[in-house]
Amino acid sequence: MAFATINSDFSYWQKQTKPLFEDLIWNIPEQKTGHINVIGGNSQNFHAIVRIGEFLNQTFPLQNVQIFLPDALRGQLPPITNLNFTPSTISGSFAKSSQLNEAFSSSDFTVLAGDLSKNSSTAIAISDAITSGINSSSMPPKSLLITRDSVDLLAESFQSILTHPQLFLCCSMLQLQKIFRAIYYPKMIMLSQPLIPIVETLHKFTLTYSTTILTFHEGNIIIAHNGQIITTPIVDTEYTPISLWSGQLAAKVAALNLYNPKNPLPASAAAVLFR
User: Fold this and answer.
1) Residues 49, 230: Cα–Cα separation, whole Å
2) Entry pTM
3) Is the dihedral of CA 16, 257, 155, 47 positive or negative?
4) pLDDT in tens, 110-143
5) Who contacts 16 (Cβ-Cβ below 8 Å, separation ≥6)?
6) Cβ-proximal residues to 240 (8 Å cutoff; 6+ apart), any chain
7) Within 10 A of 181 (CB to CB), how many other CB atoms are there?
C-alpha cells in the first residue's frame, strides 16, 4: 500500500472553539428516522451499554434503537422491548453466532460499545462478524463505530477491520498506539509528542485508511477524516478527559453521522459540541 505524503502547510487543520457546523445540529429530523444497534456487555458488566442505548433513544428522534447483550444476562434484566440477546461463551461474553452477525448487519449504524471482557473467543466472534459484513457481496456494510474497550479487544484484527468503508473509531491515544502497532504502520504516535506531530500523523493516516477517528491529546478533542483535521479544546465542551470515554459522545457521533452520512468530519465535529 502506498502511503500518503504530509501536507506541511496545515491547510487541512481547522480549530473549533464554537460550532463550525451548527446547521447540522439544527437540521436533525423532526420525525423519527434511522436504526442504530448498540452491541456490548458481558455477564459481569453491562450497565454502560444499556445507558448508551437509553441515551440514544431519549436524545435523538431515532425510529429504532436496539441493544444486544450476551444471553448469559437474560435472567438478570427485566423485560425491555429493545433488548436482545445473542449466544454467549461459558464465561458470559459474546460467542460466534449468526445472531451476532445479524446484529452487525441489521441496522443503519452499529455502535460496538465495549464492556466485552478480554475473552479471545469473543474477539474472534466479533472480528468475524465485522469482516463477514465487509466481505459480503449481497449487502454493503453499514456504518460501524468502535469505542471503549472494544478497541483493545480487537486491536490485533485491525488490519482487516480498517478496510471497512464506513468505520468510526472513538479511542484514546494509547488505543491508537495499539492499532498502529498491530497494522505495522510506519509512523508511530507517542503520548509525549506535542499536538502538531500528532495532527500530522493523523492527517497522513486518514489519507491512507478510510476511517474517521475521534481521539484526545494535549487538551484537544481531535477529529480526523480523509486527511482533514478538526480540533476542539475540551474546555469548550461539556466533557472531561474521563467522561469522553463513557460512550455518550460516541453515541452522539453515531446519531449525527446517521443523519448526515456523506459528511463524517462535519457531523463528528458537530457531535462534540452538541448538548
Assistant:
1) 28
2) 0.94
3) positive
4) 999 999 988 899 999 999 999 988 877 667 778 9
5) 230, 231, 232, 236, 269, 272, 273
6) 234
7) 13
Q: Taking the chain, what is the end-to-end CA distance rounded to the nearest angstrom?
A: 40
C-alpha cell at 222: 481531535
161: phi then psi, degrees, rounded to nearest 5: -65, -35
How many angstroms separate the Cα of 185 from the Cα of each of 168, 174, 192, 206?
18, 15, 18, 12
151-198 residue pLDDT tens:
999 999 999 999 999 999 999 999 999 999 999 999 999 999 999 999
Nearest-10 Cα torsion for 95, 118, 92, 94: -20
Strand order of the β-sheet with 220-225 is: 13-15, 228-233, 220-225, 211-217, 167-170, 143-147, 109-114, 35-40, 64-70, 83-86
